[in-house]
Design a protein that fits this description.
2 domains, 17 helices
């Protein structure tokens, strides 16, 4: 009795640590503490699970400790070596591995039912089949998202005609097969279960193929919620409360974040999943737009003078900032301007970058104070009174077509209305469109100037000019 009480107490404390850690993660100021607290909760959960009767035993401990050491080493080096530009890829991989773990647990249990004669109630069969379906989709979907983000798969390379219709048919077929396996119960053919598993894995990859690069933050968030749901369902298999609580927290938070991001784009989740938005259009070379549109360039020296003598400057970071790894140089420019009495803030769009909170993570790494970061509404309220807006590697989230061009694919999407500022300076390598594959009319506005070049190199030169003033 006391033994079970101690184990359940460990689970309870672990669950409390998860909830409180998640609460602290909601703010960059307390995120580090939240991550540490959640880690302590996970340690308590693991230790409690190790002492349950189902696991305890020298043979089991050998496998568990061995796996734990391998995982700890892999996690340590992943955290140490991964570049900030590759953080979305790492998140995708971790999401996928979570789904894969749930699938392996369900496959083992089904094997015991089909080959070893283990008893299986209807509820257990539903749980196992659901785990395979959700976990399989999470695993291969996340791996394909990784491949897209890493550039291993270009654009719509594997997109088939009527791809979304094919996906719908595959999903209906998988659900039908799952129902059929359920009706057969323990007497079902193992081959059918293998087909169900393979079908789930194939569907996961096919599910992500049509989704364009501009929607990848939403996809990562959705797959994160899937990984949590698969973990929660796997917790039902073993009647493990901490797996259930942890999975529900991840699934619920991922789902809420997905909905919030869709709202930030003024699009439904269904539209994101079937829209194929972004990553497919051809790019334009440096030079200009169509018709009489003219691009005005600015020199490093002129840009530095304009910034130095401004009263207020807003920096808009985008994925280009991450690619150039220019966040620390950007902070140096911020410090130089602030020392001259310039009010410097940062406008953060909810879907800027390639994962939820990507820009917040980058700027936190450069020690940018959190109170300088303005969300979409606050930034838009401040823009009309801002002297200069510096756009570093952002494109689609500052595109005025979202406001005034009903024919644009991003029409209706809330964006940072930077053109309302007195002046804008766009740092870009070329005139190529952003990840959504559409041209940006901002580049041709009268109050905008282009500063072409690598973001890190350009900001470094700007910092040098500012130091000499």
């Amino acid at each position: 009795m006391v033994y079970n009480f101690i184990i359940n107490l460990g689970y309870l404390l672990g669950a409390i640590a998860f909830v409180w850690g998640l609460r602290l993660l909601s703010s960059p100021d307390t995120a580090k503490k939240g991550n540490t607290l959640a880690g302590i909760g996970m340690t308590l959960a693991i230790l409690s699970a190790l002492f349950t009767k189902e696991i305890s035993g020298p043979n089991n401990y050998g496998w568990i400790v061995g796996g734990g050491i391998i995982g700890a080493i892999a996690g340590y080096f992943a955290a140490k070596k991964v570049k900030m530009t590759d953080m979305p890829q790492m998140v995708s991989v971790f999401n996928g591995l979570g789904g894969a773990c749930a699938v392996l647990l369900a496959v083992v249990e089904l094997f015991l039912i089909y080959n070893k004669g283990h008893a299986a109630s209807n509820s257990i069969l539903v749980i196992l089949l659901s785990t395979i379906l959700i976990g399989g989709i999470t695993f291969t979907g996340s791996m394909l998202a990784y491949a897209k983000l890493q550039g291993l798969i270009k654009g719509n390379q594997f997109l088939l005609p009527k791809h979304n219709m094919i996906n719908n048919i595959m999903l209906i077929a998988l659900v039908a097969l799952g129902v059929y396996l359920f009706t057969l119960g323990a007497g079902a053919s193992q081959n059918l279960a293998i087909i169900f598993l393979i079908g789930s894995l194939i569907f996961g990859a096919s599910f992500v193929i049509p989704i364009g690069g501009a929607d990848m933050p939403v996809v990562i968030s959705l797959l994160n919620s899937f990984s949590g749901i698969s973990a929660a369902v796997a917790g039902l298999i073993y009647h493990n409360n901490i797996m259930l609580v942890g999975g529900i927290l991840v699934g619920a938070s991922g789902t809420i974040l997905t909905v919030l991001m869709c709202n930030a784009m003024n699009r439904s989740l269904l539209n994101v999943l079937i829209g194929g938005f972004g990553g497919g259009a051809s790019t334009a070379g440096k030079g200009g737009g169509s018709g009489d549109e003219v691009v005005k360039e600015v020199s490093i020296n002129d840009a530095a003078i304009q910034l130095f003598y401004s009263d207020s400057v807003m920096i808009i970071p985008g994925y280009g900032l991450a690619v150039a790894q220019a966040q620390k140089v950007c902070k140096e420019v911020d410090d130089l301007l602030s020392a001259n009495g310039v009010q410097v803030t940062y406008g953060i769009h909810p879907v800027a970058g390639r994962m939820p909170g990507h820009m917040n993570v980058l700027l936190a790494e450069a020690d940018v104070p959190y109170d300088k970061l303005l969300d979409l509404d606050a930034a838009n309220a401040a823009l009309p009174s801002t002297d200069v807006v510096v756009i570093v590697g952002a494109n689609d989230v500052v595109n005025p077509a979202a406001i005034d061009d009903p024919s644009s694919p991003i029409y209706g999407m809330p964006v940072l209305e930077v053109w309302k500022a007195k002046n804008t300076i766009v740092l870009k390598r070329s005139m190529s469109p952003g990840y959504a594959g559409i041209q940006n009319p901002l580049f041709f506005k009268n109050n905008n100037h282009m500063l072409f070049g690598d973001a890190k190199d350009t900001l470094t030169k700007l910092a040098t000019e500012l130091k000499e003033m």
